[in-house]
Amino acid sequence: MKKLFIISYSFPPANAPAAQRPYSIAHYLGLEGFDVSVLSCKNQDSSMGIGSNDNKKPKAFKHYQVGGFSIKRFRSGTKKSSNSDGNKKTKIGKNKIVSRLRRLVFPDKGISWFPFASLWILLRPRKFIRTTLITTSPLVTNSLLGLFVKLLFRTHWIADFRDFHYTHNSMIASNSRLHLKLERKIIKRADKIVFISESMKKLYAEAYPKFSNKFYTIYNGYYPEEVLDEKLIDKSKFSSMPIKIFYAGNFYGGARSPLPLVESLQKLVDDGILQLSDVIIEIAGSIDTEVLNQLEKYQLYQQINFIGIIQRKRVLEKLADSHLLWLIVGEGIDHSAGIPLKSFEYIESTRPILCFAPDTSETAIMIEELAAGWILSNNLGDKAYNVEILKRIIVEKLYTKSNNSSLIKENKKYSRYYQALAFGQLIK
Hints:
By secondary structure, the protein is of the alpha/beta class. The protein has 15 helices and 15 strands. About 6% of the residues have low confidence.
């Protein structure tokens, strides 16, 4: 029996999409007969909050948890309540100074967990001998723990890169030598490196040609059993107004800008194609004050409901009950070379997607491959193009239709089950 140990700061019951990949690898490979263990953070900080612990006693794998220093006090964001007495805004976090200080933590927020996880590992050497280790980002601290295990036990190590660590990471100063040195060490010491898209693998191969022979691609994906059957969906609920547009996640300080959609919808309202009361936008998650201030300038702002951080189960319900799903992929390489994790939860719902992304991005290619929605532009100068697409969707009532669930279920590249099997093939 092949042994596998997964280290991931994020893990269910965290609502963050980042928690799903390590869970799906553990779950499916456990069912396939692998001896799987997982170490995660007991008091993890999740931007989407913590849900009910449906996986408290997993049957397919062993789950260990170690707590770290709590950093939830530094969670930032702003939400707008949907109260009828004036759309009051309530701050739910910290100020800009603390936000900037938090970005200076090396390598990331997971370092608050590192000493406790290291001690747990040090006291249990047998779990890492004759075992394959998988560390999975986006937190680089997971890879730092992988280096620690490799140094101590020479464990066969697969480092899963789901975000750019240093290379092409716009959030890290270009002169940050610590991040560069750490990334180099991870790539040098890991036995295999997995990336979540061909574009990302290519960019890293250009940066590290000497090690490109150990680079692999395994996409993120959706649970095939969670894909809704469009034939069983009550289509009548999408026939009535207002049109509900749902967004889940963060705007990353404007790197994922909400303005192209809002401006285009506002133009349709101004032109009489759409009444203001005919559309409602719901946003789940946190929002930066700067972004909120930009949105307040539009009349459409009064039709935006900020519902704050909600559990994954409720997010899935919102996705299934909305007419249209709003997806944004930033223009920067660190955004466009990957696929946002929430994209796959959007696809599971079979609701059509308004995808604002570079048309050559991995996300746009996937949306078109699965016939899951429309590709719109992030460029405010392309407002006329966006308006025409939205006008057609509204006039032809395309928002009432569902995507093809059979096409989605049959696609192996984006299925978490087949992705887990791909990881299984890399295990010694």
